[in-house]
Design brief:
One of its GO terms (biological process) is carbohydrate metabolic process. The chain is of the alpha/beta class and 371 residues long. The strands form 2 sheets. Strands 1-2-3-4-5-6-9-10 form an 8-stranded parallel barrel, surrounded by 4 helices. Strands 7-8 form a two-stranded antiparallel sheet. α7 links the parallel β5 and β6. α1 packs antiparallel against α12 and α5 packs across α6. The longest helix is centred in the first third of the chain and has 20 residues.
Length: 371
């Protein structure tokens, strides 16, 4: 018969291991943007197989079509669908239009293809957006939400993706606010909707764009290379920032909190670094330094200086090189033959609920020790 003290030691060791596992850093989910419409790409099924092999758990699909949703069947990959802004007037004017879109693009596939969220439009409130779209945004998301409820898709979040330029001022983070012309007529009603439906605030964060515009920003600050510049202190909060991504994320968090919606989770729907044909820093080497630094920082579980839990998810822009608003820039992290330009390991990201499970098991072991 085993020595009772040995059993106790085993139980203690198991409990300690489980509790340590619950305390291990777990950052946000890390995904990638995939545009199947880019010319010259492999079959969608081949891309999905490659994504699964790479450990990708989250994918953002701009302008998704049924063929792409079909390719993700039984993949286990969580999908964020981004509808083109051009659809907003039709979605806003008629709820049946929203039901029809969902019936063709989501209902035949979900949940076998895991649609987690839908973004209605992209950067609709930015200065480059078509005039008149802003007034369609709120009724469009409302109709999409109502149509989801009609069709039994209540677990799918509805939101819209913003660009960083909706902030003015944007930095330092503690002073960031939404543009005065947007805050009350457009942003507040959207925040009301997101809060009422439990949906995240979606935004693109591109430190590369800030670096392009401001020559005073050190390259190391933009590339997560802390040792090369030290830190920047926010004079309003005294918080210290060691990378530009965190500063931009906290600027958005501060602006949302200033409107009274500090509980909203934030998802970064696009971030990355071009690997060719832009500035002299748009090279494969710089792109690797940014994306590698991004992934390592997110996996550290440190969050941001202003929000301990940080952002809920981050999508790297993008999987393959394709047309962008500046045609000379290439943002893809993979070549069209499915080989990677540089290593980004997606597997292991995202917290899930394992910490709670581990803590519960540890407590159960401690209870057993009492008997």
């Amino acid at each position: 018969m085993a020595d009772p003290s040995s059993k106790t030691l085993v139980l203690l060791f198991s409990s300690l291991s489980l509790l340590l596992a619950s305390a291990a850093p777990r950052g946000p989910a890390i995904g990638v943007t995939y545009r199947p419409s880019i010319p010259g790409l492999p079959a969608r099924e081949s891309v999905v197989d490659a994504l699964r092999s790479a450990g990708a758990t989250h994918v953002l699909l701009p302008d998704p079509d049924p063929a792409t949703l079909r390719a993700f069947l039984y993949s286990g990959i969580s999908l964020l669908l981004s509808l083109p802004s051009s659809l907003l007037p039709a979605l806003a004017s008629n709820r049946s239009t929203a039901r029809r879109w969902l019936s063709e693009h989501v209902l035949p596939f979900h949940p076998r293809a895991r649609v987690a969220a839908i973004s209605a439009g992209h950067a609709v409130l930015s200065s480059s957006s078509s005039p008149g779209l802003a007034s369609s945004l709120l009724p469009a998301v409302q109709n999409l939400r109502s149509a989801c409820l009609d069709l039994g898709l209540r677990e799918i979040s509805i939101s819209t993706t913003h660009s960083f330029e909706i902030l003015d001022p944007a930095l330092p983070p503690s002073a960031a606010r939404f543009r005065e012309s947007l805050a009350e007529p457009y942003v507040r009603p959207l925040l009301d909707f997101l809060s009422a439906t439990g949906s995240p605030f979606l935004i693109d964060l591109h430190p590369y764009e800030m670096y392009r515009k401001d020559p005073a920003i050190p390259i190391g600050y933009a590339l997560f290379e802390e040792a090369s510049f030290g830190f920047r202190e926010d004079p309003g909060s005294s918080l210290r920032y060691r990378n530009l991504f965190d500063a931009m994320a906290d600027a958005v968090i501060a602006a949302v909190e200033a409107m009274g919606y500090g509980e909203l989770p934030m998802v970064v729907t696009g971030t990355g670094w071009p690997s060719g044909n832009g500035l002299r820093e748009a090279t494969v080497g710089y792109a690797w330094r940014y994306n590698h630094g991004l992934v390592e920082h997110l996996r550290s579980g440190l969050g941001t200086p202003m929000r301990r839990e940080g952002v809920a998810a981050v999508y790297v822009y993008e999987l393959f090189d394709g047309p962008t608003r500046r045609a000379e820039e290439y943002w893809g992290i993979w070549w069209a033959n499915l080989s990677s330009k540089y290593d980004i390991v997606f597997s292991g990201s995202g917290g899930g609920g394992l910490g709670t499970v581990a803590l519960g098991l540890g407590c159960l072991v401690l209870v057993l020790l009492l008997f």
